[in-house]
Structures are given as C-alpha cells and as structure tokens.
UniProtKB/TrEMBL annotation, chains A, B:
Domain HTH hxlR-type positions: 10-108
Keyword entries, A-Z: DNA-binding, Transcription, Transcription regulation
Organism: Pseudoclavibacter terrae
Protein name, per record: Helix-turn-helix transcriptional regulator
Pfam families (UniProt xref): HxlR
GO molecular-function term, one example from the UniProt record: DNA binding
Length: 110, 110
C-alpha cells in the first residue's frame, strides 16, 4: 500500500490532498497544543462527527503525520500525537493565522 | 452586506472560511503568477467547472482578495488580479509548498 506516491508534484496541491477538508487543518491546530485523546479532540471541535474524526485520524496515521498510542491501562487510554513531520505544519498554520487576521473586516456602507 | 464580520476570532478557522474548498487555494496559486482571464484560469485547473470558478471568483471579490477589471475593448476583455491582501497569501502557499514537499514518500514494504 503506497501512501504518498500518487501525490502530485506541486507542493500546494499535495498539501491540499494531505490535509483535505476543513476538519483536517482544525484537527492539526488542536494537536499542535500537544497529545490528545479522541474525546478531547472531539470536544474541541464542535460539529465534528466521531466517524469523520476517526476517518481523519486514520488518514493522518497512514500519511505519517500522527501517531496513535494505546496505553495498557484500565480503562484503556489512547493518545494521538503529531509526528515530527506533522509538527512542522506549525509554520503553515502560523502563516494562515497571521494572514487571516490581517484581512480587513470591511463592511459595505449600504 | 457584511463580508467578514461573521468570521471567527481564530485566524486558522478564518483562513479556512475565506479559502473554503480545494479550488480556492489552487485559484490563488494561479493568480500568484499574475493577472489572468477567466479562461486562462480555467485552462490551468483541469476539472474545475465554469460555475465553480465563477462562484469562487465572486466570493474572492466580495472578500477583497481579487479585483475584476473589464476593459472596454472588442471583444471585451475581463482580467482577474489579486489585491494586496490577496497577494500576501504567497507566504501561506509557500509554507504549504515547502512543508508538503518535505513529507517523505514512504511506501509500505508489503
């Protein structure tokens, strides 16, 4: 099973596939605060379904952006964490944040 | 009609609204090369429909990211161009590009 070999040459197009859909970027935003459990991620993203979050986290694992660690405790504890490559997304999200906050809030006079 | 007042406080969430959907970022990627006509943008983005492109460009105009200039020529010429705020998206797309090209192409051995 290949993970990235069908990605386009262009980095921007590649980014959009690896982080396809709005929830993907928001999940990364939360994980940039540190490792989180499934319910912790879900609680921070009102509106996301368990199915979508499960699916997205699995795809991140397959792309090598997130690790899933199950601790042999009772009750069992499962923690999701950005890998080093995933952590490097901080530069992209910082750039998004800085740009978006610079966009003037213009209200038409009419 | 307000354009940005219903945007969230968080810059990343705001970015995702202003550049909602994969085509939005790819349209910006093309316009970062300079002003383009509608058909020129469409030809560079195989798979995009005229309807989607029209709608997306209108939303960019409403957000102040793109200008639309009609030249009184025969046949009429209409050119789309990034505004200064739109042009500043270059930093975000550069960050996307750099990060995505750094993601290792790992192929499972099985």
């Amino acid at each position: 099973m290949s993970r990235c070999d069908d990605l386009p040459e262009c980095g921007v197009a590649r980014f959009l596939i690896l982080l396809e859909g709005p929830w993907a970027t928001l999940i990364v935003r939360e994980l940039l605060h540190g490792p989180l459990r499934f319910t912790e991620i879900k609680d921070r993203l009102p509106g996301i379904s368990a199915h979508t979050l499960t699916n997205r986290l699995r795809r991140f694992e397959a792309s090598g952006l997130v690790t899933r660690t199950a601790y042999p405790e009772i009750p069992p504890r499962v923690v999701y964490e950005l890998t080093e490559v995933g952590e490097q997304l901080r530069t992209v999200l910082d750039a998004m944040n800085a740009w978006a906050l610079s966009v003037p809030e213009v209200v038409d006079a009419d």
